[in-house]
Amino acid sequence: MTGSLYIHIPFCIRKCLYCDFLSVPYEKTLVGRYVDALCRELELRKDLADTLKTVYFGGGTPSLLPEESLCKLFACLQVNFRLLPEAEVSMEANPGAVSRFSLELLVSLGLNRLSIGIQSFDDGELRTLGRIHTSAEGFEAARLIRDAGLKNWSLDLMYGIPGQTAKSWQKTLSAALQMSPSHISAYELTPEAGTPMKTLLREGTLTMPAEDDILRMYDLAVNTLGAAGYRHYEVSNYAQPGFECRHNLNYWDRGEYVGAGAGAHSFVEGMRSSNAMNIEDYIRLLSAGSLPEEESSIVAPADAAREFIFLGLRKTAGISIGEGAAYGLNLAESSMRLIADGYLEREGDYIRLSPRGLVISNTVIVKLFEAAGL
Predict the structure, then answer these.
(1) At what angle do helices 28-44 and 279-287 cross, to 10 degrees?
(2) Pick from 53, 1, 55, 5: which is nearest to 257 by CA?
(3) How far apart are CA 349 and CA 304, in angstroms?
(4) In this predicted model, what pLDDT tens digit does every residue of 29-47 receive, in sequence order?
(5) Cα–Cα distance between 113 and 93 in angstroms, integer?
(6) Contact (Cβ atoms closer than 8 angstroms) between residue 34 and residue 22
(7) At a CB cut-off of 8 Å and minimum separation 6, what does 71 contact?
(8) Which residue range(s) make up the domain with 85?
(9) What tens digit of pLDDT does each residue of 137-148 get?
(10) Do 63 and 212 lie in a common domain?
(11) Which helix (H) or strand (E) holds 206?
(12) Beta-carbon-side half-sphere exposure of residue 11 (alpha carbons within 13 Å)
């Protein structure tokens, strides 16, 4: 039985210019109908994950949910699943979508980890991203989190923003450290097709920083956060000792998980499946007593081997040669050239990306695929 549960809450005040996740504007009546459907799905899926080690509310902006909906969801979890005493229960939030009352309520319901999307402490960069908050509101959100007594909380940052410089990124990193979060995520902005930002870049209204500048920003994150005591445990994630995100580590270890909500994905007993993306279709299927799955497939052996490599190499600890053998991989042999070229490192049974390899991780992983015959 899988021990991880992801719950998708697709509501936002306004969609950011770079966002390609499933999200829709907040509308009270739709929220109520959606949460009712979500509870029905959780009841239908309870036998797939009867005991939970991690729960993650993602979105969207889950912290937008009203008190009634939050109480209903947490009660549904308690009725249908057994949460281990040490279970990690996380939720994504944004400045402007949390208050002293909502945080106190969430903690009383069982939330013990919060991930807040601040992205930048430069107001110009926030406007470029289409964020609805200011840097001052970011600081205020962090104060509210600390006052609520949450010791396990993550601050999300973004680099490679149009108009951003190494100097402004260093200021954002320094501001983040002033807040002493237990975890920091630093993601490179990747404009996706179909987003307004991609259109603005194509039209020339916005211009991405030069590749060398983006690499410099990555190095600044590694060095600045490392010097402050944060362990770089995954390509984009840094944590104080003991505060690594256990839910995400399960993904990177290719562990099983159940996904609930519109567009959510599950991985159970070697099968990957995804839910209906259309929210009305999602609600309709569950109202009829059916699971809202649109696609499902057994993961082929070669695809499982690829997943083992590209998910596992996201972690700075790397992947086990011994575990790779279970996927038909001879990693000791296929990694030799990349180790000799300085892109991979080997320590005992483990192979990991080198500092040089981390900055071009996708390219290194493709080369390892080729060497392994995948």
Answers:
(1) 50
(2) 5
(3) 20
(4) 999 999 999 999 999 999 8
(5) 11
(6) no
(7) 105, 109
(8) 4-252
(9) 999 999 999 888
(10) yes
(11) none
(12) 18
